[in-house]
Write a structure and sequence with these properties.
This protein is of the alpha/beta class. Helices cover about 30% and strands about 25% of the residues. It has 16 helices and 25 strands.
Length: about 550
Amino acid sequence: MPTTLYDPPELEAGTLRIVPLGGLGEVGRNMTVFEYGGKLLIVDCGVLFPEEHQPGVDLILPDFEPIKHRLDDIVGVVLTHGHEDHIGAVPYLLKLKSDIPLIGSGLTLALVEAKLKEHRIRPFTLTVAEGQRENLGPFELEFVAVNHSIPDALAVAIRTPAGLVLATGDFKMDQLPLDDRITDLRAFARLGEEGVDLFLVDSTNADVPGFTPTERSIGPVLDQVIGKAPRRVVVASFSSHVHRVQQVLDAAAAHGRRVAFLGRSMVRNMTIAEDLGYLKVPDGVLIDYKKARDLPDDQIVYMSTGSQGEPMAVLSRMANLDHAIEPGPGDTVILASSLIPGNENAVYRVIDGLTKLGANVVHKGNAKVHVSGHAAAGELLYCYNILKPRNVLPVHGEYRHLMANARLAQDTGIPEERTLLAENGTVIDLRDGVAEVVGQLDLGFVYVDGSTVGEITDADLKDRRILGEEGFISVIVVVDASTGKVISGPEVHARGFAEDDAVFEDVKPKIAAALAEAAQSGVRDQHALSQVVRRTIGRWVNQSLRRRPMIVPLVIEA
């Protein structure tokens, strides 16, 4: 059903307005704006990674349009944790106004600052920890420890006179985390006793029954795979998954192997994690990548990026033999990560490429080398029963995840009308314990393409898809300016066609005849003549070759 757009009313005094700008109906670009008393608070500011139908796009940002004219009203950006889908768009927001304060835990802010350094932005930051309270304008914030697939993740409770909101960020309830920092259910219970008016809750695994396994359960599997590997081992994971890297370091040390980090983001993030004490590196295990190549094959583990099949990442380049490390028979490659929706084909292409080269590829489908960082249905039910929220807004997930989360909430007794299924741009007002939808903004995708931000449109991407899938034809014709008669041409050149250009000899007389007919009708306008050429060759190519290529006609008057 198409979305009905309508503007929200003026915000009444004493009402809290919530507008998700990203993260609903997708896994990525998480960003939610809270407004009270003329001030704005932002929670998270992430990116979405492009899919195959978005060729040439580097990143996709939330649409900042609703807040662009109100940058001075922003009191701060709370970052729940350091994953790209929650922090990746921060540089693009700060390019609009560089002194917007960033609030987050130590590791989260360190990762953001390293990213901002590349953009030559020095941010204003406030480091917070679980249990801490801070006031930003009319918003009183309380931070709660949650565990996730990156250390130092925080949920945030937002208090205003309009009510209490709890946003989980990404979280799970691992009871035996590697860093012994569990999700603080005692704090959740205390907030539940106070009365949570609106619960914004991670939906990613809402359609997965039961409980997410513990991160520790992966350690023995990694240990076994690395212990049995006859030659080199390559482990691919997210460049911010400190716990996963920790387990790889420990398994490598146990089997007398050294570890080299591959990929700029992996090196940067793990250096930060080690400096801050989140990554504990066994003595003598790390080795520089260039020196690692001199080691015997059975003494090295490469820790790399590229677990999502990204074309320019290390693992894809290995699979394409476009990297100094060329996998071969006896090598073991471990994909220690999940499949982000939309990346499946790219990942399976990499797996096939590596398998064809003779490598033994170990992945989630054939070994327990990954557990999710998100709460499954059983954990979410616990949260609903502990918190007893008055209203629920499922966030972070595709529509099926949001719907599954809403059903869980309803199973625990939350009325259907208090369970809001929203999308990006939905405007929700909270007042007197009631949250209701009051508007729907028109938000789009903002594409980062090389150095351009927001200039590439969906029409441009459609053109790229046509070029990639259907090919390209250019037609050049020179006509007499006074008579419209063809003097030279038409010259037809094609790209992306199996056929030789000679196949177009049949259509050239048709183009000349169509131009002559147009000239007899008094048509002299270059654009109109170009359209005659486009229609004529387009119809012929469609009928003769069953193709719909991009056609660029050029009519020159002489």
